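Hi there,

I know you've been waiting on this one. I reran it after we fixed the sequence typo, so this is the corrected version. Both the input and the resulting structure follow.
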Amino acid sequence: MSQLKPSPRIDKFHNLRRLSQLLDNAIPIPGTPYRIGIDPILGLLPGGGDTLAGALSAYIVVEAARMGLPRQVIGQMVANLLLDSVIGVVPVLGDLFDVGWKANVRNMALLKQHLPQTQYHPESDRLFVMGLILTLAVIVMGFTTLTVVLIRWLWNLLF
């Protein structure tokens, strides 16, 4: 009796879901029904933490594009990350926002909703995917730079 082999698309979805859970819901808060992930914890590390969390979040969006999601849905996913990054620039407040916003969970919900309606194209529109990677890299690095500048400005203002 042969076993059916899971499709690469299903495997990829499950791997992305695990990454999303790690980033947004991995740690239960004792005594509450709430969970947080490592994303807001990484955000507490000035500059580098936000860069790492942003890169992992961007990976989810890039893989969704490679899986063939419509560009409009990819745009919604990028908007979720952009909002997370814009507010994430503000020290502490951005991390608190990240606890509630959970951009990765939102993006996985979009992926789950639209995946059945798409065809799997691991080689999907290379130019679009490359442009998306470049755009996400600029967003992540730009907001990391802005965070460092803001922290330096606050440091000089206070000390």
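Quick highlight: Strands lie at 27-28, 35-36.

Best,
R. S.
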